[in-house]
Every structure is written in C-alpha cells, then in structure tokens.
Design brief:
Blueprint lengths: L1 E5 L4 H12 L4 E5 L7 H10 L5 E5 L5 H7 L5 E6 L8 H4 L1 H22 L3 E7 L23 H20 L3 E6 L2 E2 L8 H10 L4 E4 L5 E2 L2 E2 H13 L17 E6 L5 E2 H12 L5 E4 L14 H7 L7 H16 L2
Parallel strand pairs: 1-2, 1-4, 2-3, 4-5, 5-6, 6-11, 7-10, 8-13
Antiparallel strand pairs: 9-12
Helix pairs in contact: 1-8, 5-6, 7-9, 7-11, 9-11
Length: 329
Amino acid sequence: MAILVTGVAGFIGAHVARQLLARGTPVVGIDNLNDYYDVQLKRDRLNDIAHPNFTFHQVDFADAAALDAALQGVEIDVIVHLGAQAGVRYSLVNPRAYVQSNLAGHLNLLELARSRAVSHMIYASSSSVYGNAKSLPLRVSDRVDHPISLYAATKKADELMSETYAHLFRIPLTGVRFFTVYGRWGRPDMAIWMFAEKLLSGQPITVFNQGQMRRDFTHINDIVAGVLAAIDRPVIDDGLEKPGGSIAPHRIFNMGNHRAEDLGRVIQLMEAACGRQAVIEYQPLQPGDVLETFADIGATTAALGYQPTTPIDQGIPDFVDWFRTYRGL
C-alpha cells in the first residue's frame, strides 16, 4: 500500500515524498497548486520528484467530494498531512483561506483516516501555536491557549480536532510542530529565501523589530528525518500519557534545531554566502509575529531518536548555492 502525502508540491511535502520514494515506498501525492506563491516553483518540485512509484492528483483536500473522487480505489495505509494554508501575515489579509484549508481540510483528512482505517496519520502543526510564550525553550507540555495569529489558531484547532478523533475513533495520530524550516526548494515567503533574492539582486532587505528577534531555524533534511522517524515509529494505543498530554493514541512533537538564532547572525551568514553586504530597511514588529522561538526536542529525541545535525553555518550556504543554480545566477 501507498503513503498519502498532502501538500506534495509544497516545500516539506516534496522533500518527504522524495525520501519515501528513495527508500522504495509508493507515494500518492495531492496538492491544489494554489497561487499563494509561484505555481511554477510547485510544478518544478513535482518534476524533481517524478518517479514510477509516484502518483499525483491535483485536488483541493478542503473539497470533501473532490478528495473522495480523486482517491477512489487508491489503497493507502499511512497519511502524511502536510498541506495547509501557510503564512502568519497572509492570515491577516485572507483569513477565510485558513478556515477552508486548515480547518475544513484537516477535518476531511481525519475523516479519510477514519473511513480508510489507516494505521497512522502524521500531520503538520506549527511553532506558532506557542504565541509569545514567556518560558523558553518551548515544550509540548506548555499551555498554548493564546495564539497571536489566525494561522496559529487554526493549527491549535487542528491539534484539538485530532485529539477528539483519536479519543473517539482510536485513530493513531502524530502532530508535529515545525520550527522555521528552511533549505533547498524552500518557500518564497520565508525570510531566508527573501534575503537571498534581495541580496543577490542588490535590493534592500526588510527587517522587522530592529532585528530584535530570534528563531529556531531548522534545516529541511532534519525535518524530513524526523517525519520519516515518526512514520516508522507509530503511536501506540496503550493508555499511557503521550507527549502533549493525551492518553488517546495522539502525540505531539516539536521538530526544531534546539537553538535560538539571532536574526543579525542569520543576516551575516546570508551576506557571506551571497558575497554581498545587506542594505537593511528596518520596520516595526508585524502583527502576529512572535519575538522568539526555541524548541525543546527532548520528547522527540526520546520517542523518535530525532537529532538535528545541520547548523545554520552549513544550511544557509547550501541554500544559497541551490538558489543561485535554480535562478541561474
């Protein structure tokens, strides 16, 4: 049987699909190829992961009827639900897109998992659920009741819906809170991509809050290793308390680099990799942005053997090398 990967033309989804295919696992991928960012980048990712064991369906998983029709007769054993409407700032502009994709869409995947009696579903949450937490590092045992963006609120809602389905229907579910993922084939709305694009074209870069922010930047290779480890070590319905506090077959993990990097240091590494000095335009802190993220990964390491290995000193130059090649610079 195949593994279903949603958001397969997205940044993380494409990387996960590629690694699953490399180890001989058939993958069924779905994506609606929306225009939140350049659709050609999504098509290029799909071309990059083309494989005889890869089947792609262009479908919006927020449309339950279309989802069922696309997957009719397709046997799936595991779901890796990575598709979502991403972005904190865009949720201020188009909030209904988040309700449609992240709430209705997540419910549709839970219903698919229930109707197909899948052995396990892994789904993407986000470090954004922590809001402006006062205590660092951020632990999955922390209360996350005060999201500061609609995006974060939808991801917290996904965790709550998943807990309900795990409790009622005993569906094995693993939620993963990703921390600022970057790397090859990344997203154009993320800082690393935008810095590279502007530095290499001689444009000023925009930096918010006078640069007084810290982020747990996590390389895509480490994220993919963590997701595959979650697939290989499914949650057990044993009545014991899981990371995140559930006694149902539902656990939540942080996946970060376990380091809070100063934005200034990130910019210095970008300058060195691009061979350009940045001209910085400072702007106030944007609504919905958090000041600092720093993942406690103890539970993830204990359960999955997760251990990030790529520091930003390696990951940023690697991304810039790829970016130059992709853009022909």
